[in-house]
Amino acid sequence: MTVLDRAEARLLVVDDEPNIRELLSASLRRSGFEVITAADGREAVHFAERTRPDLVVLDVMLPDMDGFSVAGRLRDVNGQTPVLFLTARDATDDKVAGLRVADDYVTKPFSLEEVVARIRAVLRRTRGDLDIPARLQVGTLELDEEAHQVWVSGEPVRLSPTEFKLLHYFMVNTGRVLSKAQILDHVWNYDFGGDAGVVESYVSYLRRKVDVNEPRLIHTLRGVGYVLRPPRDD
Amino acid sequence: MTVLDRAEARLLVVDDEPNIRELLSASLRRSGFEVITAADGREAVHFAERTRPDLVVLDVMLPDMDGFSVAGRLRDVNGQTPVLFLTARDATDDKVAGLRVADDYVTKPFSLEEVVARIRAVLRRTRGDLDIPARLQVGTLELDEEAHQVWVSGEPVRLSPTEFKLLHYFMVNTGRVLSKAQILDHVWNYDFGGDAGVVESYVSYLRRKVDVNEPRLIHTLRGVGYVLRPPRDD
DNA sequence: TCGTTTTCTCAGCAAATGTTCAGCCTGGGC
DNA sequence: GCCCAGGCTGAACATTTGCTGAGAAAACGA
């Protein structure tokens, strides 16, 4: 993902499952964030005190204390740190009880695209962060993250959620080659079991809906992957 | 969720339950207010002296002193700070009598929409705050918050309380995508246990009553949520 | 109190979306 | 030019999502 000279923001990732923690922190670092991790609530509060993160990604279910208490403590310690909750898809009770205090939340299993998008959205809202653009543009292609809308040469285009996420991933990585495996890892949920064939299907859908004019923007690199290239430097 | 350059007003939120305090302060901040919190009467008076809030949201039942005494003290200290009381639904007579001291009150469990609306109304009344519009308009849709009335192409429409709150939430967030969870969290009481199905029902009711003309204003974004979009940029 | 309004749930239907796959196409090495 | 692995795409199928009408239950008002 985007590589920046300086970190966009400092994040604290809190989850007791090492897999998830690693998955998230690696991916978020690649997206340009500075990342600190914690495995439980106690650790989270401790690190938050010392490092003053700009945002906390917090699993609702932790071994020592539930996420809401942690969020409360964090806010006691560190003013109005925004919190993005991670929660199981069917955690109905939790939602009712506490998710409203969250600035946003993502259900497990999530896709990395989704988490990054939510983090950016929250930072944009809570800090009015203008370094994080809500609107992307490549050639005649425009994408508004907040309005969840896409235009081709000014004409609105309807995309399904997956199509939208895929296009967004391409646009954030304009000019960078993305392998099918990489795309699968970022755009699809981390528990997706299928093979890279889906990616081909969705690239096909996208081209039909979004890449209709010459010069083409989405290019195939045989044996390597795909690139979204702006016009003129093909 | 409106993002503002400056805070609309400074609020002091007083409640001994941490959950409620967090819920309110997170949500009010998201609505553009600057928020200070206090857990009991003593703290409330102390903070009010120092920070001079524009309005105090005050739970009637506090561990150290009852809300009315607190309100009295606040007024001794800080002129005529308006107060919005929070009270249990089954308020007995003495309480109701006391509530006449309040500029307004909201019963628990409340919906965030309701609290924000009341706060705005009180600020409008007591400060003549013109930054806070009482009338919203989107396309041929008009909503008067104060008169609690809605017109479609100039024709008045009868809405139930929930329908009204939902429409208001849509209109305040024109152009912004709202997920069903988000809608549930803001428009329904915080103790609502049901699922997002109700939202679908109420959107259906609303469309039938207020979104009868082309072009449609309320759009469904499958898998994402709903948007109220003004005509012409679909 | 009784009738009316409102809220909420639910199930059946329709439509959109996600996934797989087989057959065809194509670029590039030989 | 021939071949073939890799890529493309239409079709089929499964799954998910959203819409709506009907009705039970609760709240409200006279």
Characterise the protein shown here.
The structure is a homodimer of 234-residue chains. Chain A has 234 residues and is α/β, with parallel strands linked by helices. Chain A is 39% helix and 21% strand. Chain A has helices at residues 18-30, 41-51, 67-77, 92-98, 112-127, 161-172, 180-187, 197-210, and strands at 10-14, 34-38, 55-59, 83-88, 104-108, 135-138, 141-144, 149-152, 155-157, 218-221, 225-228. In chain A, the strands form three sheets. A five-stranded parallel beta sheet of chain A has the order 2-1-3-4-5, with helices on both faces. A four-stranded antiparallel beta sheet of chain A has the order 6-7-8-9, covered by helices on one side. In chain A, helix 2 packs parallel to helix 3 and helix 6 (161-172) packs across helix 8. The two termini of chain A are 21 Å apart. Mean pLDDT of chain A is 89; it is low at 1-5. Chain A binds chain B through residues 68, 71-72, 75, 80, 92, 95-103, 105, 125-126, 128, 146-148, 156, 160-161, and chain B through 1, 3, 5, 18-19, 22-23, 25-27, 29-30, 112, 175-177, 181, 185, 190-193, 195, 221-224, 227, 233-234. Chain A binds a DNA duplex (30 and 30 nucleotides) through residues 160-163, 194-195, 197-198, 200-205, 207-208, 220, 222-223. Chains A, B: Residues 133-230 form the OmpR/PhoB-type domain. Chains A, B: This is DNA-binding response regulator. Chains A, B: Keywords: DNA-binding, Phosphoprotein. Chains A, B: GO terms for molecular function: DNA binding.
Helix percent band of chain A: 25-40%
Number of strands of chain A: 11
- How many H/I helical runs of chain A? 8
Ends apart, CA distance between termini of chain A: 21 Å
Helix and strand content put the structural class of chain A at: alpha/beta
Contiguous runs where pLDDT drops below 50 for at least 5 residues of chain A: 1-5
| Cα-atom radius of gyration of chain A | 19 Å
The largest sheet of chain A is: 5 strands, parallel
* SSE order of chain A: EHEHEHEHEHEEEEHHHEE
Oligomer: homodimer
Largest interface: A-B, 25 and 30 residues
Shape of chain A: elongated
- What is the average of the pLDDT values of chain A? 89
Sheet with the most strands: spatial strand order of chain A: 2-1-3-4-5
Q: What portion of residues of chain A belong to β-strands?
A: 15-25%
Modified residues (4-aspartylphosphate) (chains A, B): 59
Protein name (chains A, B): DNA-binding response regulator
Domain OmpR/PhoB-type (chains A, B): 133-230
InterPro entries (chains A, B): CheY-like_superfamily (IPR011006), OmpR/PhoB-type_DNA-bd (IPR001867), Sig_transdc_resp-reg_receiver (IPR001789), WalR-like (IPR039420), WH-like_DNA-bd_sf (IPR036388)
